[in-house]
Every structure is written in structure tokens, then in C-alpha cells.
Amino acid sequence: MKNYKIQTVQQHQEQKQQRNQTILQMRQDGHTLQSIANKFGCSREWIRLILKNDLNTTAKFKFNPQQHCKADEYSALDITELTGYSFHYIYQLIKKNWIPNSTRFVKTRFYRTPDAHFWKKTDIDRWIDIKLKYLKISLDRFLNSRLNGYDVYHPSNGRTYRAAYNFYHPDIQKRYKLLLELQSGNSKGKLSYNSKHNDLVMKEFNDLIKPTQYVPSDYSKFINKITTKDFANKGLYNHMTTAKILDISGTTIKRYRLSGFLKEGVHYFAGDHYFHRYMYDPEKTKKAMIKAGYDVEFAQSLKDAKRGKK
Q1: CA distances for 297 relative to 16, 59, 177, 276, 292, angstroms
Q2: pLDDT per residue over 147-163, tens digit each?
Q3: What is the average per-residue pLDDT within 233-262?
Q4: Over 80: is that where the pLDDT of 274 sits?
Q5: Rounded mean pLDDT of 36-54?
């Protein structure tokens, strides 16, 4: 006689309860009725009836990573708040191994979302510290290169010119204020400003290279520089503004300065910045030029002729 395995009522109930719990958990993890049915080899209608009749639920669940996150872990949502990165960019970081490996993964139907990944807080905190260091280095490099001068090539004439930014230029101020915030510890959500150096960050995180040291730059010499407004309060203006005030071409003023008729410290002052290279006293400059032979009336007649005036 064939032996049949007889299942007790209690065993049947325990198996059913375990099955229903699995179905509910999968539904809460975001699985569709069809994907759950595929796991159990049944129809989606049977799964729907179990959820409705046995589990008394017809709700559409969305996977909530915060419900699965442990006390010593960060979810993807936590990392977006700490760094300012989007979910899409975090997925790219995972894909390219530019973020520490997640220590736990909850399998859901959303296989291309970082929601199901969980990381140890200690790993992410160290990773963020390294990224912040490289961000500060990048900001310092930009500020120093622009403030101390950089070469600009002009294809129109094939010449290279030396240029520099004013400390109060919007591009400088934006980065300088961000650097101050990072140095003061106010860095939450500000990593998205610069996403470079990902390879170097991971090499340092994995102890493959020697840690880079960050030495803050001193910008006091730029902060204490006299601004255009400060010069204007003293009655001094740069080359272009002086030419407009006097209605004299900048080339003419430059010729008189190079000829020695305009004296440094009397008619003009050498500034300490690219934009303040020569700061003129318009009234004294005009008087000195007239004394040196500049004919105001003749110059005006030439201007009128060019402008078509009689």
C-alpha cells in the first residue's frame, strides 16, 4: 500500500499563513499581482482574492525604503538629502562603482532604482568626507586660478592675453561663499555642486592611494583690495570710464601717459588688480593733457566731422 503524507490542519494553517505573509510582503515591496502569481505558479486573480479575502486588503502598495532601513544604515533617500544628488545620479554612482557597495539589498520589482539599496552609515559618512575634501580643493583651484590670473587665447588675432577676475565677480563670490559654508561644516545637500574626482574619491576610500591633504587658501589679500566703488569715492576711475567722462579716446589718454605727460601718483594711480591697473583723476588728467598741447577745440572738430556734423 502506498504511503501518503498526511498534513495536519495545524500544519496546513501554518503553511497558508506563511504563504499569505510572503504575498503581502511582496505586494508591499512593490511587486505586481502578476509577478507574485509567477512566483507561486498561479493566476493573478487568485493572488487578488487572497489579498482581498484572507488579508483584507486591496490597496496598491509602494515600496517604502524607510520601513526597511535599520538604525545603522542609510537609505538612498538619506543619501540624496546628505549630498544633494538625484536618485538618477545615485543609480549612476552604483552602476559605475563610484559609491561604496551597499551592505544590503531588498529585492523588489524596481530593479533599476537605488531605493532597494542600504548602506552602512560609517561607509557613507567617510565617503562624503572624502568627496567634500575634493570639492574644497576644486573650489580653491578655481578661485586661485581666476584671481591670480590665467591665459586667454584670442583666435581673432592669434594672441594670448593675461586675464584675472575681480574678487567681487559673481562667479568668484558664488564659489567663495560655498567654500566658506563647507569649511564651517554646513555641507548638507551641497555635494551636487561638483561631481568630479569620483575615481580619486573611490581610490582613497578603498585605501588604494595616499590620502590627499587639503590646505585652505588665504584670500585676505583679495578681500582687502580696494574696489571700483572705493576708487570712485576718491574721484578715481579706470581707463574706459575716464575716457567716457572726458569724451577723449582711450588711445589718446594712453599716449599721453606713455609719453610721460601724465605722472603716476598725481594724474593717475596704479591699482593692485587687473581691473584697476590705472585709475585716473579725470580733472587733473585733462588739465595735464591740455598743458602738454592737447587741443580740445580741434579734437572736437574732428569728432564732429566723423559724426557728420557741420
Answers
A1: 107, 90, 51, 30, 15
A2: 888 787 778 778 887 77
A3: 91
A4: no
A5: 84
The β-bridge relationship of strands 278-280 and 237-238 is: antiparallel
DSSP state string for the chain: -----PPPHHHHHHHHHHHHHHHHHHHHTT--HHHHHHHHTS-HHHHHHIIIIIS---------HHHH--TTEEEHHHHHHHH---HHHHHHHHHTT-SPPPSEE---S-TT-GGGEEEEHHHHHHHHHHHHHHHHHHHHHHHHHHHS-EEEEETTTTEEEEE---TTSHHHHHHHHHHHHHHTT--TT-GGG----HHHHHHHHTTSSPPPPP-PPP-HHHHTSPPHHHHHHTT-EEHHHHHHHHT--HHHHHHHHHTTSSPBTTTEEE-SSGGGSEEE-HHHHHHHHHHTT--HHHHHHHHHHHTT--
Report pLDDT digits (tens) over 197-218.
999 999 999 999 999 999 999 9
Residue 167 C-alpha cell reads as 574678487
Of residues 63 and 238, more confidently modeled: 238
Q: Is 221 exposed, middle or buried (0-12, 13-18, 19+ CB in 10 A)?
A: exposed
Q: In DSSP terms, which residues pair with 150 in a beta bridge?
A: 163
Residue 3 pLDDT class (50, 70, 90 cuts): low
C-alpha cell at 42: 498561479
> SS3 sequence, 17-48?
HHHHHHHHHHHHCCCCHHHHHHHHCCCHHHHH
Q: What pLDDT, on a 0 to 100 scale, did the predictor assign at position 2?
A: 58
Contact indicator for 54, 61 with CB cutoff of 8 Å: no
Q: In the predicted model, is pLDDT for residue 84 greater than 80? A: yes
Query: Residue 75 CB: number of other CB atoms within 10 A?
Result: 22
